[in-house]
Amino acid sequence: MFEQCPKRLWLSVHRRELAEHDDGAEARFATGHEVGAIACTLLPNGVMVEAEPDLAAALVTTRALLDNGLAQPIFEATLQHDGVLVRIDVLEPDGAGGWHMAEVKSSTKAKDYHVGDLATQLWVARNAGVPISSAAIRHVDSSFVLERDGDYDGLFADTDLMAQAEPIVAGRGDAVAAARATLAGAEPDTAPGAHCDAPFPCEFAGYCHAALPAGPEWPVSVLPHGGGKRWIEQGIVDLLAVDPAALSNAVHARVHRATVSGEVYHDVEGARAAMAGWAFPRTWLDFETIGFAVPRRIGTRPYQQVPFQFSAHVETADGGIMHREFLSLDGSDPRRACAEALVEMVPPTGAVIGYNASFEKGRILELAAAFPDLADALTAMAARVVDLLPVTRANWYHRDQRGSWSIKAVLPTIAAEMDYASLEVKDGGSAQEAYAEAIVAGCTPERRLALDTALRAYCGRDTEAMIVLARRLQLHDDVCGGEI
Fold first, then answer.
1. Euclidean distance between CA atoms 115 and 81, whole angstroms
2. In this structure, what CATH number is given to the domain that contains residue 48?
3. What residues does the DUF2779 domain cover (predicted)?
4. Dihedral (C-alpha) 109, 113, 114, 119: value to the nearest 10 degrees?
5. Does residue 40 belong to any structural domain of this protein?
C-alpha cells in the first residue's frame, strides 16, 4: 500500500472513513478464501496457525512450531520484525533444514506487484530467524481441468520469484522506516495520477480527486484506445483545444468532430450495407456467464465462463419479434440445459447476432465441445454468428458516448428510456453476483424468485437494445433527428 501511494497508507490509518465502498470486495474475499482453503487441502498433513484469540497468540504458536523442529507444512505462519507482522500462506519444509515459502493467489499467473509482497514476507522471515530456501507465488494453473468432483490436485503452480525479490528485500528496512515516518506525520500532499489505479484502484481516489480543480467538460481522454495520452504529454487536456488537422487517426478525428460540432456521426448507408447479408430469421443473442476461480463443473477450467442464462429475440423478415430465454438458478451444472435450450429456441437458419459477438460464439463452441450429441447443431449455430459492435463503431458516434461503443454507452444516445439504471441487475458483474447469491443453499425461495426476475429483465434488455440500435443505425437522421 505504501509503495503504491504514501497518502493511501496514511488515509487508511488516520481517515478510514473517507474510503469509498468497494462493491466487489466481498466477492474477491470469498474467492481468495476458497482458493486458500483448497491450497491447504492439497497438503493434508499441514498445521494451521489460528489467529484466535489474537495475533500475539499466533506469533507464539508459530515460534513453538519452528523451534520444535516441525517437519510438516505450516499454514498462516505468523512472524514479526521491526513492527511488521506477516502471515505466510504456506511454509513447506525443504528437507534440508530450510523452508519453501509460498504465497497463494487466485490469479492465473504471478504478477509484478506480487514480488513486493513476497519480498516483505522474506524480509520478516529472515529477520525472525527462519531459513527460507525458496519463495514462490502459488497461483491457479489455467490449464487445469476438473475431472472428478473435489479433486483439485494440479490446480496450482508455483512461480519462484526469490531472485526477483532479493533487491527489494535489501531495501525493505528503509521502506518500513519511510512508511513509519509517513504515518507519524501530516497527511502527505500526493497528487492523483496513474498510481491511483495501479496495481489496484484506490479506495480514496474520490477524496483525492475532489480536491483537484474541475477539468474540461470534454477531456482528451475520451479519445478511444488511449488516444489522449499523446496530447496530455504535450500539456493539452481539453479535447476542444486539439487541432483537428493533427488527428491522423480517422476514429479520433470522428470523435473530435462530433464532440466539437455537437452533431452525430451517422453513416446510414454504411450500416445498411454491413447488415444487408444478415439473413432472417435473425436471432439477437446475449449470454450471462460466471467463471469460478476454482472450477465446480466436471470438464471446466479455472475462470472458464459457464453460461447460466441467455436471452434470444428472434426477428422475422416482416418485423415480428418473439422473445425466448433460458435461466438456471437451481445450483446444478447449467451447461447441458443451456445447450439444449439453444438448440430448441434458436432457429436453425438465419443470422445469430451478438454485441462483441466473439464472446457468444466462444460459449456456443464450448458447449458444442462439451456435448457431442449437440455439437453439429451448435457448431452450425456458431458459424452463423455476426457482430453488431463493429457495425456500430464504424457507423455511429454521439459525443455522449465519451469514446466508448459499449452498448450501455451507445443506448442512451438513441433510446434514453431504455436506461439500465432502473434495473436491479445493471451489468455483467452484478449478474454474476446475483447468480452466485441465488445458487447458495441459504437463499430463500422469495429472494431467488426476485433474483430470477431481475436477471431476466437485465439480459432481455441487452438483446432488446441490440434490435433498437440496429434499427436506428439504418434510419436517416431526418426521420429521427440528428442534433445532440
1. 19
2. 3.90.320
3. 284-406
4. 150
5. yes
- pLDDT (0 to 100) of residue 482: 43
DSSP for 324-364, please give it.
EEEE--SSS--HHHHHHHHHHHS-SSS-EEESSTHHHHHHH
pTM metric for this prediction:
0.92
Q: 187: which DSSP letter?
A: P
120 shares a domain with 162:
yes
Q: Cell 434470444 belongs to which residue?
A: 312
Q: In the structure grid, which three cell numbers stand for residue 484, read together?
A: 445532440
Question: pLDDT per residue over 447-456, tens digit each?
Answer: 999 999 999 9
User: Degrees (nearest 5) of the Cα angle 1, 225, 292?
Assistant: 55
What's the confidence (pLDDT) of residue 478? 60
Cα separation, 55 vs 181, whole angstroms: 24
Residues 184, 13: contact at Cβ < 8 Å?
A: no
Domain check: are 19 and 164 in the same one? yes
Q: What is the DSSP string of 254-307?
A: HHHHHHHH-B-EE-HHHHHHHHTT-PSSEEEEEEEEE--SS--STT--TT--EE
Does residue 195 sit within a domain?
A: no
DSSP state letter for 372: G
Which among 452, 397, 400, 399 is positioned nearest to 424, based on CA atoms?
452
How large is the angle between the packed helices 428-438 and 25-41, nearest 10 degrees?
A: 60
Q: pLDDT band for position 131 (50/70/90)?
A: very high
The predicted pLDDT at position 410 comes to 97
pLDDT above 70: percentage of residues in the chain: 99
Is residue 110 within 8 Å of residue 159, measured between CB atoms? yes
**352 shares a domain with 279:** yes
- For 128, other C-beta atoms within 10 Å of its C-beta total 17
Same structural domain, 38 and 97: yes
Q: Which domain does 417 fall in, by range?
A: 265-484
* Any domain includes 437: yes
What does the chain come to in residues? 484
